[in-house]
Amino acid sequence: MYRQRALSATRVRPQRRVTRSSMMVWPLYLVDGKRLFVNDYESKQESNMRANTSEILSFMFVAATGVLGGCVGNDAGSESQDVARVEMVPWSGTPRPEIAQALSEHPGGVQINKDQIAWNNGTVVLTIPSEPQPAAQDSKGPIALATVHGCPSGWFCFYQDINFNANTAGRRLQFSDCSSGGTAQFLTDYGFGNQTSSWVVNKSLGFVDVIDSETDSDLWFESGNSSSSWVGSAANDRADWFICFL
Ligand SMILES: [Ca+2]
After folding, report:
1. Do residues 127 and 234 share a domain?
2. Is the per-residue pLDDT at 67 higher than 90?
3. In the predicted model, is pLDDT for residue 63 greater than 80?
4. Residue 145 C-alpha to ligand 1 middle, in angstroms?
5. On the CB side of 148, how many CA atoms lie within 13 Å of its CA?
6. What is the pTM of this model?
7. Starting from the edge strand earliest in sequence, which strands make up the sheet with 217-223, in order?
8. Is 21 within the bounds of a domain?
């Protein structure tokens, strides 16, 4: 409902529905040509929103003022940003059955080590541990965190279990591709639909809008360099795809 009102107020042209043949989508919100960041502030404000243009514009001014400053660095040259990727060099060992199954069910992947498969020119990686893993320790670099709960720098990660798969053999699916125009990708392409319970964004980006296909609804928004150890019972095991905006 809020989006409809925002749309009329700002003449935004978002496309909430995308197809696999059209992976580029418009930003959800534009104000004077600038992308509006979407975060929890919005949902808190939403209950107070009325279909009153002055209120909407006032809210947007506040949101834009509060957030765009933090996005300036990401906007410059965002389309040419280097994207993290792994080398698509095949591992020489014999795949475990669950890895072989994932490779078979989701073509185009290359097993790159005993626990990982990469797709899409090395910008998508699925980790399937053979046994429960202890909680990953964050490694701190001089500037950015090299890993956050096992999610490498430059990537955003979805975890099968709560607390970032700590002490479980839960799978992790990670992506690095994102764009200023919005890049949609499907967890379901990698057997990860209706799986996510926690997530990490270890990358500077605008936001990731995570969506449930069954209800065509937003489940949550992820901002740059943030994380959630538990998506909550209402959103748990429902995520199917997302749109990432730089
Ligand atoms: Ca779902």
Report:
1. yes
2. no
3. no
4. 31
5. 21
6. 0.70
7. 183-186, 241-245, 207-212, 217-223
8. yes
Q: Is residue 20 part of a domain?
A: yes
The pLDDT value given to residue 106:
97
Same domain assignment for residues 39 and 156: no
How many Å lie between the centroid of ligand 1 and the Cα of residue 230? 16
Name the amino acid, one letter, at 36. Answer: L
CA–centroid distance for 29 within its chain: 17
Q: What is the CATH number of the domain that holds 107?
A: 2.60.20.10
Ligand 1 mean position, distance from CA 193 (Å): 6
- Cα(238) to ligand 1 centroid in Å equals 4
Distance 81 CA to ligand 1 centre (A): 30
- The answer to whether residues 48 and 106 belong to one domain is no
CA dist., res. 209 & res. 61, Å (int) = 21
Residue 15 in domain: yes
Query: pLDDT digit string (tens) for 209-245?
Result: 999 999 999 999 999 999 999 999 999 999 999 999 9
Structural domain span for residue 47: 2-76
